[in-house]
Amino acid sequence: MIELTTSLMMLMSAVYAGSGATLDTTAPVPTQAEIVAKEQVLTEKRATMADVETYVREYYKDTPILAEVARCESTFTQFNKNGKVMRGTENPADVGLMQINEYYHAEPAKKLGYNIYSVEGNLAYAKYLYNKKGTAPWSASSPCWGKKVGAQVAIR
């Protein structure tokens, strides 16, 4: 377990070092092999919710409100126990860690190069949405994440 966590943290550090709150189009794009390796680590049965939570919190270290949104929206879950992408209980069109609605966002995300059905794509598209619309796309869950972050949150 320590090896898995250490490997995950090293991989995240190498790929996301210095990522900011805004979409950085000049940052190096991870290779397909790096993306596949991260996805494998995060979908292995040995990857616990704590591992995924650590990954999400590191990914959103510059926008911690998004980590709280992930906690409330999915309890840090991208895939269910059968290995399929997690879907919303109230709206099955909401998928993954950030509960991105595929009806409205699958095609726009795809055009931008994000796969909302993968961990990386779901988190990256959520950051894109946040940069465009703030926390408004997740306003339904604000009673949960709003309590946690309180006055630090400004709905843009």
Counting DSSP E segments of at least 2 residues, the number of strands comes to: 2
Tally of individual domains: 1
The residue fraction in helices comes out at 40-55%
Largest sheet: 2 strands, antiparallel
Counted by DSSP, the helix tally is 7
Spans of at least 5 consecutive residues with low confidence:
1-24, 151-156
Element-level helix/strand string:
HHHHEEHHH
Distance between the termini: 39 Å
Please identify the structural class as seen in this structure.
Answer: mainly alpha
| Rg, alpha carbons | 15 Å
Oligomeric state as shown: single chain
Mean pLDDT: 78
What strand order characterises the main sheet? 1-2
Beta content: under 5%
What is the overall silhouette?
globular
Topology:
Blueprint: H1 2-16, H2 32-43, H3 49-59, H4 64-74, E1 94-95, E2 100-101, H5 102-111, H6 119-133, H7 142-149
Antiparallel strand pairs: 1-2
Helix pairs in contact: 1-2, 1-3, 3-4, 4-7
